[in-house]
Design brief:
The chain is about 80% helix and about 0% strand. The chain is mainly alpha-helical. It has one domain: Up-down Bundle (Growth Hormone, Chain: A), CATH 1.20.1250. The chain has a two-stranded antiparallel ribbon with strand order 1-2. Strand 1 and strand 2 form a beta hairpin. The longest helix has about 40 residues. It starts with a helix and ends with a helix. About 5% of the residues have low confidence.
Length: about 425
């Protein structure tokens, strides 16, 4: 594969990641307002609105968790491209149903479909990138994957916040569906998804299908070593606190700060922007100053402290600054964890990344549920508990270092035996 062909493939895969995360980002600032509107239409108790916000946020990663390993194994068997295409089709259906929903049950159905099929895009796309890049450049390309994901979270909330407030004096109902100004951002996301689907069909080449390996059980047990488990625990903690923060901040902005969807969207945009800019910077230049493990430790420290401080900050500007600091910490951690997982096994990269994605989904399920439950006691609790959890998880990095030394010793022993 020549350099131009490789760059084209990387661009197309990153494009699919971007559009899926754009759809995810569109819903972030609008979900509390959209849920409230549908709940009132269904004559539900207003005290249950935050409960439904948490459940609607959690049900998406729940179904990602149930299906992600299936997609990973299928992509190892049939190649990455057909699985990515299936994911994009599900993404389009999810956004159409969301935009046309007339009840909470329809919104739940849209989120379930989205969870099932978008779990076929993100981990499989990362596995595709891993397939076509060398180990030396793995961290860098995973950082660019993070840029594509973060870019979707940059533009999604802005589009969602802005387009949901457009003064379109137009409503149209047909059957159980309803089209109005709240539909605009989701219809746009569906159209973008359709365009990307056509582009991927035409220009993205499938990866080479990996042959079945007789020693599958042995390799799977190696992938679940203590080293891998610690990486998964760290991934879980980051996703848990990030989704808890996203869910609680949208409610906090609406109820406590009296933010509009635009102001909430700006907060998510800043978070995504910092992640997009800093992930490749840390991946490219960070190792010249700090090792991967040192970057993970520092990133956890920054994220944990900023979460604890967040509920005590007042003023729109200072709130945004704290969000930026929190995102900077996350930008140090995420690409280093993903790169480490992708390097564990050459033969089972798709499955290992899918296992990590499943772990992330567990964090994404528990974060919103716990966050919305803790809000009942006050907005301070979810932020402080999330921050303390991150700081405690720093202790896992010590064991990661110890396990890394053990792995290196085993590799050296094998080399001596071969010699």
């Amino acid at each position: 594969m020549n350099r131009k062909d490789k760059l084209n493939r990387i661009f197309l895969v990153l494009l699919s990641l971007f559009v899926v995360m754009l759809g995810y980002g569109i819903l972030l600032p609008t979900l509390p307002y959209y849920t409230e509107r549908l709940a009132l239409k269904d004559n539900l108790d207003t005290d249950l609105i935050n409960f439904h916000i948490g459940m609607l946020t959690s049900i998406y990663p729940l179904f990602q968790l149930l299906f992600v390993i299936v997609w990973g194994k299928l992509s190892d068997k049939y190649g990455r491209k057909p699985i990515i295409l299936l994911g994009l089709v599900g993404f389009i259906v999810m956004n159409l149903l969301t935009g046309l929903a007339t009840s909470l049950s329809m919104l739940y159905m849209a989120r379930i479909i989205g969870g099932i099929f978008t779990s076929a895009v993100i981990p499989v796309s990362n596995a595709y990138l891993s397939d076509i890049t060398s180990e030396k450049r793995r961290t860098k390309i995973m950082a660019w994957s993070g840029v594509a994901i973060s870019s979707g979270v940059i533009f999604g909330p802005v589009l969602g916040g802005f387009l949901s407030q457009t003064n379109l004096h137009y409503t149209y109902s047909f059957g159980v569906f309803h089209l109005d100004r709240f539909s605009v951002p989701f219809i746009l996301a569906a159209l973008l998804g359709f365009v990307v689907l056509l582009i991927i069909i035409k220009w993205l080449k499938n990866t080479e299908v990996k042959s079945r390996i007789a020693s599958e059980v042995v390799k799977f047990s190696f992938s679940l070593s203590n080293y891998f488990i610690i990486l998964l625990l760290l991934s879980f903690v980051m996703q848990f606190v990030v989704t808890l923060f996203e869910t609680v901040f949208s409610i906090y902005g609406k109820d406590e700060l009296a933010f509009t969807t635009n102001q909430v969207g700006i907060g998510f945009m800043l978070c995504g922007s910092v992640m997009a800019v800093l992930q490749p910077v840390f991946a490219t230049y960070g190792k010249k100053i700090l090792t991967s493990k040192q970057q993970i430790t520092l990133g956890l420290l920054i994220s944990g402290v900023s979460l604890i401080v967040f509920p005590f900050v007042s003023g729109e500007l200072y709130i945004y600054v704290t969000i930026i600091i929190f995102a900077a910490g996350g930008a140090m951690v995420t690409p280093n964890l993903l790169s480490a997982v992708s390097l564990i096994s050459k033969e089972n990269t798709g499955r290992n990344i899918s296992i990590q994605s499943s772990t992330n989904s567990i964090g994404q399920i528990l974060g919103p549920v716990l966050g919305t439950w803790l809000i009942a006691g006050g907005f301070y609790y979810p932020f402080i508990i999330a921050g303390v959890t991150v700081l405690v998880s720093m202790g896992l990095v010590y064991f990661l270092k110890q396990q890394d030394k053990e792995v290196n010793q085993i590799l050296l022993a094998d080399q001596h035996k071969k010699g």
